[in-house]
## 1
Amino acid sequence: MSQRMTSVILLACAVFAGCATSPEVTDDGLARVDGYRFADVYVRPGADLAHYQHVEVDDCEVAFRRNWLRDQNQSSRSVTTRISQEDADRIRGDVAAACDEEFRAALSKPPAYSLVETPPEGEDTLVLKPAIVNLDINAPDVQSAARTRSYTTSAGEMTLVLEMVDGVTGEVQARVVDRRRGIDQGTLQWTSSVTNRAEFNRILRRWADLLRDGFDRVRDGSAAAG
């Protein structure tokens, strides 16, 4: 696990570890701002996100809830339904790819933002660094020859930590932290890789749409950050 991912997980835990209120100022000097549909938004005082001409979207990093793999396998009734490290890596890769796809799609809608792979020299670029942490899938599908069915009331939950970084200085200009749970069906429903993917994609799309809305508000001069 990268050093950044470790820091991101610790940050998310600090925000959601049963605190009655989120911190008003982060350790790196970002101030909490209200009026957004994300759970927590922090902005560096004096930051001007409207002046950036390009946006670079880094690859999304994904981390499961602590001990998720162990807990899943301890509750498994059969060796054939145990989750391998290969299964876990595949799921992480699928979530990361879906995150990248949804954020890029949202920013590419007309009028599209200038998405770049590498910040152009001498031009202002805002780098988005998304991370999905505390990923908790209640009944993951595993690649097994055994025919099994899992039933849950919800697909699970995950937390987005999105940092917006100056492409030249590397300084974090804004940070979003938002935890979302899958829809609680109220009754047990058959859960599969298809239903899991649909539910988590719905959450990712929601986050991407909120980010796009925030960017539009910044561009229109009606907000300071997304």
Note: DSSP finds four helices and nine strands in the chain.
## 2
Amino acid sequence: MISVDQALDKVLGRVDVLDTEESPILGCLGQVLAEDVYSPIDIPPLDNSAMDGFAVRSEDTRGASPQSPRSLRVIGTSIPGSICSHQVGPGTAVRIMTGAPVPQGADSVVRFEDMDKQRREETSSEIGILTEVQVGTDIRRAGEDVTRGTIILPGGTVVRPPVVGVLASLGRATVTVIRRPVVTILTTGDELVDVGQPLPPGKIYNSNAYSIAALVLRCGGIPRMLGVALDSKELLAGRLGGGLDADILITTGGVSLGDYDVVKDVVAKQGEIVFWRVRLKPGKPLVFGILRVGESGHIPYFGLPGNPVSSMVTFELFVRPAILKMAGRENLARPVIRAVVGEPIVNEDGRRIFARAVVEKRDGQYFARLTGPQGSGILTSMALANGLVIVPEDKARVEAGEVVQVMMMDWGEEVAGLISD
């Protein structure tokens, strides 16, 4: 068996960043820019008002106060989306709305609230200014946000909602991004029945296909579910062949030491097994390999354990970072925090344990409570968890009240309150 760290190094050493695609800006949320995005324009394109008020010459406001208002003649109005034809000269002002271009001659804006109320109505031809303003007051300068010809979004930027907004502000309808990895998912086992079907005696529903597909979606991949392969080398080999037109192939089940665990033998004939079995709990019987595609192609292969918790934990530890790297992401790791654990955890066989827990923050400190029994078949323990308590290989026991590391899978209140005291 190899360690978790050794296994992850081997996985990341055998996967590469994918090629690029042109995508509509709303269709690439979560993807990574594969180009430097330059601005063809200044934003804002012209000096404009940051407030509703009047565009004035600042020198015309000198000495203004509530006791001694400065009277100015209103000569026009500037509204967003049009250029004001009026020029502000001595003793004059232009009524201006937020975002409207500043007319020629004006160097500042006086807000409506700094006007004599009796003389600031829309029909008034004269205003009374109650305060001094300085040059540039409440004016947003041309190019203040974005300067024409400069790199606004460098390649490698993850497309988040504000990035979509910036792209739209530049007039970009599409952008070049690293494409999303396509991940085929094949579950194995004579006992599996698809959801929506009657459940015969001795059978179980195929939950792994759906939980793994959901995890693929969540980290930005495109899942393609191949259904169920029976525990037969011939049938499995045929089904694996149908999943090679992807970027990653995942199977669940069939990788242990049982009489019907045939996946390793089939994979070995179609490619290379890089490692089998990792020193962790849950998830020891994990296979990672490389499958041949055609004459010179290949794709990475993950044989995840059949137990649902083991399948999801090994995905989090190994498949998720691989998908993220292929998608061009640089931050591949889940955040790890320090928390006070609520129960003792015993490490009986020197493996790195990832125990399901719900993490809460109280009085500035994180606290982690286990989600109940930790058997690898108890899928509800994952549904209740937002983090995995990490017990190192060389630590035989963690005591209640001890500070431990926790790998966070979720933040926020998504799972809060699901575990009763």
Note: The two ends are 38 Å apart (CA to CA).
